[in-house]
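User: Second chain of the day. Same drill as before.
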Amino acid sequence: MCGFDSSVFFTYIVIGSFQAVLAHANTRINFGFLKYVFVTPQFHHWHNSDNPKAYDKNFAIHFPFIDMIFGTYYDQGTNWRESTELGDVKHPIGFAKQFVYPFVKNPQADLKNASE
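Assistant: Same format as last time:
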């Protein structure tokens, strides 16, 4: 592909997979200045925040400077988001119930649609 050796792509897959798992890790490790160079858990966790200031921010997969260029960077400083709640949305508790939930009829959505 484009003249690159296949080892280049395999290396990217390994590094990209590691970074994707790290970005989604539930950890509060302080990466210091590296959080401005690479996507870290703190950077990505703000993407999932319920804080309106962080809505539609921090989309980059590998490098935060991409969000800086496009104006979607949220500078979290040394803070971590407080929660990822979805407001008044209710969801079932437990792995099996959450796994099945998208495939069953949602009575809350029916009630909301009926009131509109």
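DSSP finds five helices and no strands in the chain.

User: Great, on to the next one.
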